[in-house]
C-alpha cells in the first residue's frame, strides 16, 4: 500500500521512519518503458539470480492446529484470505514455493466456511513452514489522514502529484539493469538520453510545477512526507470532505530513512536532550527545526506519486482492499502474496494470524514484515511505535512441502 513506499522500519516502525522503511504498501503501478528505442540495442548483462524462499530453504513447522489460534483474529484472517483468493489462484508466486493450483482447495472452501470455525479451516487446509531461520522482525504502518484539498487555496500550498508521463523504465541497452533484472526508472531528456528522474529536492523546487499533475494540495510538508512513507492515506478538507489517495509510482531513487540518519547524528534516541526514536518524535524534531528538517527530508531522494482511490479502503499490492490488524506487507520473494502468516512476537498485539496482501520498498528479505493497523489515532500510535521480534511461520497449502522436497 503502503501500505507506501511502504515498506524498513526500525524502532520507529511506521515504516521508514527510523529510516529503515519505505513501505508502503499500496498498489504499485509500474510505468512502461519509454523514450527512443536504439536501432541495435546491445545485449544487457545477465542479472544475478535473485534470492527467494525456495532458494533460501524452508523447513516444516508445527501442525497448524497447535498454534493457538484466537477466534476474532482467525475470523478476520479468513475474511482477508477470501478476498485474496481470486488473485492467489491466478498469479505467479515469486517465492518459488507454490503454484496457483495449490491454493484451489482452500479457496474453494473459504467463502462458505463459518467464521466461528475459522481456526478449523486453517488447520484443515494448511501446513506450516519456516523460511531460513524464521527469526522475524515486524514493524507497522497505517492509513494516515492529513489536511488537504482538491483545489489550491491559502494554507494549502504543497502539491500532491500524480505519476508523471515521462517517468519510465529504461529500454534495454540504455542503462544497466537493476540487481533483480528490471530496468531502472528514470526519464529521457531532450536529447533522447536516459537519465535519473528528478529527486525529492528538484521536485520540491518546482521541476514538475505547472504540468497539470497536481491531484490535490496538502497543508503540511511534514505530514505529506510521512504519508509518502505510508504509501496511501486520506486528505481531509476544512469542510469535512475526504480524498483518498494511494501509491501510483516512485521516482526510482533509492529510499533513505531519515530516522537512521537522525540517530547517527544523535538527534533521536533515549539520552537526555534527544527526541524519541518514534514517528512522533521524528515529526516533532522536523517541526521544531523547520530548516534543518527540510534538509533532512531531502536526504531521502525517493519521491512517491499518488492516484485517487475509490472503494471501501486502501488497496495493497495484491490489488485487493487491505484490513487493519489483518494485512501484513511482505517481500514477495519470500512469502507468497495472499498466504496466511503466523507471527509469534514479543509484542502481543501484533502476534497472531495475518495475511500477506501488501509489499513495501523497504520490506525486504526473509521474515521481514510490516503490519497494517488501519486508520485513526490509535492506528497511528500503534504503528508509529511498532518494533517487534519473534518467530514467523508461513501457512502453505497441505502437500506443498512434500512437493518441494521431491524436486
Features:
407 residues, alpha+beta, Ribosomal Protein L25, Chain P, 6-stranded mixed β-barrel, 6-stranded mixed sheet, 11 helices, 17 strands, 23% helix, globular
Report on the structure:
This protein is α+β, with helices and mostly antiparallel strands. It has a single domain, classed as Barwin-like endoglucanases (Ribosomal Protein L25, Chain P, Beta Barrel). 23% of the residues lie in helices and 23% in strands. The chain has 11 helices and 17 strands. A 6-stranded mixed beta barrel has the order 3-16-13-15-14-17. It has a 6-stranded mixed beta sheet with strand order 5-9-4-10-11-12, covered by helices on one side. Helix 8 packs across helix 9. The relative contact order is 0.27. The N terminus is likely disordered.
The fraction of residues in strands falls at 15-25%
Residue-averaged pLDDT, rounded? Answer: 87
Give the distance, in angstroms, between the N- and C-terminal Cα atoms.
35 Å
- Order of secondary-structure elements: HEHHHEEEEEEEHEHEEHHHEEEEEHEH
Strand order, main sheet: write it out.
3-16-13-15-14-17
Assign the CATH topology: Ribosomal Protein L25, Chain P
SS field, number of helical segments: 11
Shape: globular
Structural class, by secondary structure, is alpha+beta
The CATH architecture can be named as Beta Barrel
The tally of structural domains comes to 1
The largest pleated sheet is described as:
6 strands, mixed, barrel
- Which CATH C-level class is it? Mainly Beta
Give me the CATH superfamily.
Barwin-like endoglucanases
Helix fraction by DSSP (H/I, runs of at least 4): 10-25%
Number of strands: 17
Pfam families: 3D, MltA
Protein name: peptidoglycan lytic exotransglycosylase
Keywords: Cell wall biogenesis/degradation, Lyase
GO molecular function, one term: peptidoglycan lytic transglycosylase activity
Amino acid at each position: 500500500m503502503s501500505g507506501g513506499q511502504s515498506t524498513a522500519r526500525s524502532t520507529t516502525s511506521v515504516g521508514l521512519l527510523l529510516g529503515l522503511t519505505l513501505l508502503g504498501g499500496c498498489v504499485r503501478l509500474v510505468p512502461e518503458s519509454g523514450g527512443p528505442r536504439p536501432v541495435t540495442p546491445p545485449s544487457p548483462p545477465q542479472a544475478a539470480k535473485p534470492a527467494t524462499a525456495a532458494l533460501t530453504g524452508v523447513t516444516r513447522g508445527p501442525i497448524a492446529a497447535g498454534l493457538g489460534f484466537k477466534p476474532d483474529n482467525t475470523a478476520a484472517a479468513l475474511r482477508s484470505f477470501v478476498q485474496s483468493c481470486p488473485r492467489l489462484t491466478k498469479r505467479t508466486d515469486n517465492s518459488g514455493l507454490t503454484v496457483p493450483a495449490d491454493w484451489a482447495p482452500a479457496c474453494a472452501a473459504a467463502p462458505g466456511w463459518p467464521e466461528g470455525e475459522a481456526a478449523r479451516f486453517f488447520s484443515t487446509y494448511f501446513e506450516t513452514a519456516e523460511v531460513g531461520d524464521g527469526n522475524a522482525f515486524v514493524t507497522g504502518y497505517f492509513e494516515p489522514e492529513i489536511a488537504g484539498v482538491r483545489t489550491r487555496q491559502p494554507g494549502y500550498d504543497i502539491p500532491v502529484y500524480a505519476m508523471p508521463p515521462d517517468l519510465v523504465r529504461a529500454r534495454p541497452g540504455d542503462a544497466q539493469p537493476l540487481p533483480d533484472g528490471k530496468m531502472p526508472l528514470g526519464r529521457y531528456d531532450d536529447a533522447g538520453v536516459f537519465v535519473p528522474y528528478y529527486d525529492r529536492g528538484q521536485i520540491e523546487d518546482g521541476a514538475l510545477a505547472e504540468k497539470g499533475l497536481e491531484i490535490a494540495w496538502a497543508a503540511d510538508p511534514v505530514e505529506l512526507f510521512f504519508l509518502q512513507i505510508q504509501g496511501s492515506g486520506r486528505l481531509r478538507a476544512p469542510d469535512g470532505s475526504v480524498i483518498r489517495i494511494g501509491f501510483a509510482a516512485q521516482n526510482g531513487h533509492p529510499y533513505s530513512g531519515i530516522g537512521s540518519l537522525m540517530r547517527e547524528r544523535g538527534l533521536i534516541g533515549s539520552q537526555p536532550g534527544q527526541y524519541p526514536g518514534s514517528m512522533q518524535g521524528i515529526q516533532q524534531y522536523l517541526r521544531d527545526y523547520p530548516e534543518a528538517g527540510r534538509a533532512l527530508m531531502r536526504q531521502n531522494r525517493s519521491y512517491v506519486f499518488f492516484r485517487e482511490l475509490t472503494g471501501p479502503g486502501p488497496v495493497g499490492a495484491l490489488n485487493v482492499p487491505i484490513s487493519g490488524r489483518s494485512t501484513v506487507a511482505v517481500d514477495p520473494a519470500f512469502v507468497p502474496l495472499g498466504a496466511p502468516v503466523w507471527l509469534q512476537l514479543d509484542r502481543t498485539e501484533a502476534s497472531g494470524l495475518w495475511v500477506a496482501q501488501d509489499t513495501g520498498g523497504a520490506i525486504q528479505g526473509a521474515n521481514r514484515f510490516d503490519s497494517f493497523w488501519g486508520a485513526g489515532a490509535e492506528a497511528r500510535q500503534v504503528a508509529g511505535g511498532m518494533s517487534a521480534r519473534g518467530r514467523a511461520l508461513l501457512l502453505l497449502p497441505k502437500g506443498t512441502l512434500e512437493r518441494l522436497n521431491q524436486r
